[in-house]
Amino acid sequence: MPSGLDPVSHTESDAQLVAAYLSHARVEKRLAERTMALYALDLEKLIAKVAEAGLSLKEVQNTHIRRWVAQMHSAGRSPRGIALILSGWRGLYLWMGRQGLMDHNPVQDVRAPKAGKPLPKALGVDESVQLATYVAEADSPALEARDRCITELLYGCGLRIGELVGLDVRAGPGAKGWVDVQDGEAHVLGKGAKRRSVPVGRAALQALASWLEARQAWLGPHAVDAQALFVGARGQRLTPQHIRVRLKRRSRLAGLATPVHPHMLRHSFASHVLQSSGDLRAVQELLGHASISTTQVYTRLDFQHLAKVYDASHPRALAQGKRASGPAVSDAADVAADARSPAPPDKPRHP
């Protein structure tokens, strides 16, 4: 029993029980005031539902909790919101059990509905090119060359931010990654200390050549980390946070409606390669995903692209500016499925 608090009577009203629990939470858990306010609101909801059902807190059963969760979900409450409410309710009943007021926890094993995984945010092809080719005239030539090279490598190779900042100017015993200009490949150290090689396109190689030339003149002989490919004015290796700030600034200056972060360019790379090739396995290899299931999220992005093309071009989709219901959506789904399915093998030739 928490010190400094009076024992809880078995005849306490529901409101008094909740007040005693909140006092316990405040003293023993030392929760923030904002958290305590949210707990109080969620428990007020519970008291209201209990009273509406003609029950007391001690009479609530597992079936009641499940019914109330279903009601909240059908009313539009988000799965995350329901999960937070259940957490507050579960804490109350755990405390009541410790006080000897309940012999079971009606919230036990009740889970919120599963939240749908949001699609990764990706730029359109035109937006990606607009960001990559933008010239920040207010920056020094070296700074502009560096930021453009960063953008081209993130978008052109689908690198993670950690893989990008780990790149060195050249291969070496301690190098985590480097770009082989002659072979047109980036060698990076990915998640789980797994190495992979990614092709580097012509535009990225040109941006890299411009940055390497500007880098040498910019740093001079006093670089702190002479091996790091991407460095600041003092020669120190750039941090992920620094690159995020620079990329967000670049996207704003380039006139993009959405602030861009490094992983958005990785998503854009994957989505655009899949749209063009339909080869999910190849995208998996390029991204360095251990499981194909991780890569499959991009098939949903691919379908969105195909559906937009369908909406803009097919007569069945142009009724009053909205996608036609029924067969129209089905046809778009068939198009997406066909785009992701491997082509049938060629018929054998007869001599």
What does this entry show, briefly?
The protein has about 350 residues and is mainly alpha-helical. Helices cover about 55% and strands about 5% of the residues. Strand 2 (about 175-180) and strand 3 form a beta hairpin.
Characteristic key phrases:
mainly alpha; four-stranded mixed sheet; 4 strands
Task: Write a structural description.
This protein has 351 residues and is mainly alpha-helical. The protein contains 14 helices and 4 strands. A 4-stranded mixed sheet has the order 1-2-3-4. Strand 2 (177-180) and strand 3 (185-189) form a beta hairpin. The longest helix has 20 residues, at 33-52. The chain starts with 13 loop residues before the first helix and ends in an 11-residue tail after the last helix.
Question: How do the helices and strands line up, and which of them pair or pack?
Answer:
Elements (H helix, E strand, L loop, with lengths): L13 H16 L3 H20 L9 H13 L4 H20 L26 H9 L7 H17 L3 H5 L1 E2 L8 E4 L4 E5 L5 E5 L2 H18 L20 H14 L8 H16 L2 H8 L4 H4 L1 H17 L13 H14 L11
Parallel strand pairs: 1-2
Antiparallel strand pairs: 2-3, 3-4
First-residue to last-residue Cα separation: 90 Å
Helix content: 40-55%
Radius of gyration: 29 Å
Largest sheet: 4 strands, mixed
Mean pLDDT: 82
Strand content: under 5%
User: Helical segment tally?
Assistant: 14
Q: What is the general shape?
A: elongated
- What sequence of helices (H) and strands (E) makes up the elements? HHHHHHHEEEEHHHHHHH
Low-confidence spans: pLDDT under 50, at least 5 residues? 1-11, 320-351
Side-by-side strand order of the widest sheet: 1-2-3-4
Q: Structural class per helix/strand content? A: mainly alpha
Number of strands: 4
